[in-house]
């Protein structure tokens, strides 16, 4: 394939002229990819995408984990097409809103009510607002080890990209480490009667220690705190019922999105009736303004969500994701070890949600080495900032990826031996999303 993408390079310049950052999601920015090697996508099908230069790639992390069934999945598209001719947005609720809500609650039986919206940030911020209203408390306790919760001030103010956010807002968010019950308890005791909620992903790169989620549930109940599970990723990757279904721990509120629509824009806030109704019309409490969005219930997106849930019901999607991930992780680890970079190119996470780490000579995370590795993957026809699989990938796709990783590891070994990845980077290193300056 080579490393020359003239049409993508021109398209990136075009994007930057009219869109701040050149993309509508920072994680899709060209700064996340090697210099002049950030493909601009033309179209996708199944587990593959094509760029505007005509190159075909095996794709990972599809749509930032949103496309778990593969691009243009026929059952999802059929459901969407069946709704399009009926209209997509009305002055009153459409009957599909009830149907989709009922279907969701069958799928996530730990929740009593659900409200749909378009993106995860709106859902998580609505959960936080609801928790504050229900408890009368102002502090939000977020898990410090989970990368992203919302674009809203309560979270973004805690990151290096906190320009424009008052300190007073940031001061109302406190943090706790994942997996450490004692630290969570000490935080709750230190701010006794002040913390409205604990918000975390139930699992991420590491599995919850035995008893951890159950212990958090008990702590939250004891201290009168709302327990919120952010299931944007774990929902429809850990199990069709979410991580709460897999681990058997019921939060007070939970948020879903990403794979729920297989690329169509739909997210959800779900939870206990006594909390959710504070944002409704059947509670005596002071009302919460809870997720009132013009496009939150577009009919075709809700149809997509129902189709996704039907596919998960009829096919072993979760089993497929884990089988593909297991095969990929084992292959990558084997070739990395065989080439002598097993301690530097590492694969982490649940099989359905794999990420890779690129470590330098001292075993520390390295953006220059990540740049080298990504460059070799893209040149070999593999596109992905992670190894998060979709169910549309084939065994042949996995085998090709392992072959490309082997080639990348050979170059990686040369860079380690030279104690300098720069000759193989092709330009400036890729950058972390959260940073003070461009």
Automatic annotation (TrEMBL):
User: Keywords in UniProt for this one?
Assistant: Antibiotic biosynthesis, Isomerase, Pyridoxal phosphate
Specify whether Membrane is a keyword of the entry. no
Q: What class of enzyme is it?
A: isomerase
Taxonomy, superkingdom: Bacteria
**Keyword Lipid metabolism applies:** no
MF annotations from Gene Ontology: glutamate-1-semialdehyde 2,1-aminomutase activity; pyridoxal phosphate binding; transaminase activity
Which EC number(s) are documented for this chain?
5.4.3.8
List the signal peptide residues.
Answer: none
> Which GO BP terms, alphabetically?
antibiotic biosynthetic process
What this protein needs as a cofactor is:
pyridoxal 5'-phosphate
Q: Which Gene3D superfamilies match?
A: Aspartate Aminotransferase, domain 1, Type I PLP-dependent aspartate aminotransferase-like (Major domain)
InterPro entries in the record, alphabetically?
A: Aminotrans_3 (IPR005814), PyrdxlP-dep_Trfase (IPR015424), PyrdxlP-dep_Trfase_major (IPR015421), PyrdxlP-dep_Trfase_small (IPR015422)
Tell me the protein family, please.
Answer: Belongs to the class-III pyridoxal-phosphate-dependent aminotransferase family.
PANTHER family associated with the record:
GLUTAMATE-1-SEMIALDEHYDE 2,1-AMINOMUTASE (PTHR43713), GLUTAMATE-1-SEMIALDEHYDE 2,1-AMINOMUTASE 1, CHLOROPLASTIC-RELATED (PTHR43713:SF3)
Q: Under which name does UniProt file this protein?
A: Glutamate-1-semialdehyde 2,1-aminomutase
Record organism:
Amycolatopsis iheyensis
């Amino acid at each position: 394939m080579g490393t020359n993408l003239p049409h993508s390079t021109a398209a990136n310049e075009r994007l930057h002229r009219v869109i701040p950052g050149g993309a509508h999601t920072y994680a899709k920015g060209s700064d996340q990819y090697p210099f002049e090697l950030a493909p601009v996508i033309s179209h996708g099908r199944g587990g593959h995408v094509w760029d505007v230069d005509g190159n075909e790639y095996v794709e990972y992390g599809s749509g930032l984990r949103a496309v778990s069934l593969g691009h243009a999945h026929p059952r999802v598209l059929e459901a969407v097409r069946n709704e399009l001719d009926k209209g997509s947005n009305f002055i009153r609720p459409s009957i599909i809103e009830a149907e989709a809500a009922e279907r969701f609650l069958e799928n996530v039986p730990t929740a009593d009510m659900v409200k749909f919206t378009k993106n995860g940030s709106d859902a998580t911020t609505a959960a936080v607002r609801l928790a504050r209203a229900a408890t009368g408390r102002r502090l939000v306790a977020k898990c410090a080890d989970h990368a992203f919760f919302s674009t809203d001030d309560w979270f973004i103010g805690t990151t290096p990209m906190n320009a424009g956010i008052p300190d007073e807002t940031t001061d109302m968010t406190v943090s706790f480490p994942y997996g450490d019950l004692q630290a969570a308890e000490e935080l709750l005791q230190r701010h006794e009667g002040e913390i409205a909620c604990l918000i975390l992903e139930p699992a991420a790169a590491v599995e919850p220690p035995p008893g951890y989620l159950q212990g958090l549930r008990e702590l939250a109940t004891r201290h009168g705190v709302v327990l919120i599970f952010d299931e944007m990723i774990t929902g429809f990757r850990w199990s069709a019922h979410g991580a709460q279904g897999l681990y058997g721990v019921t939060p007070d509120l939970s948020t879903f999105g990403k794979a729920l629509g297989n690329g169509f824009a739909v997210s959800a806030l779900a939870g206990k009736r006594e909390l959710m109704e504070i944002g409704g019309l059947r509670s005596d409490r002071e009302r919460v303004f809870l997720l009132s969005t013009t496009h939150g219930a577009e009919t075709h997106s809700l149809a997509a969500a129902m189709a996704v849930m039907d596919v998960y019901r009829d096919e072993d999607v979760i089993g497929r994701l884990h089988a593909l991930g297991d095969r990929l992780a084992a292959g990558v680890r084997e070739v990395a070890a065989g080439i002598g970079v097993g301690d530097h190119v590492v694969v982490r996470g649940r099989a359905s949600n794999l990420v890779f780490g690129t470590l330098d000579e001292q075993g520390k995370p390295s953006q220059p080495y990540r740049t080298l590795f990504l460059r070799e993957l893209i040149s070999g026809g593999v596109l992905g900032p992670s190894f998060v699989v979709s169910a549309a990938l084939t065994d042949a796709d996995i085998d090709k990826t392992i072959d490309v990783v082997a080639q990348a590891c050979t170059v990686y070994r040369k860079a380690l031996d030279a104690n300098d990845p720069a000759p193989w980077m092709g330009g400036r290193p890729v950058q972390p999303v959260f940073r003070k300056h461009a």
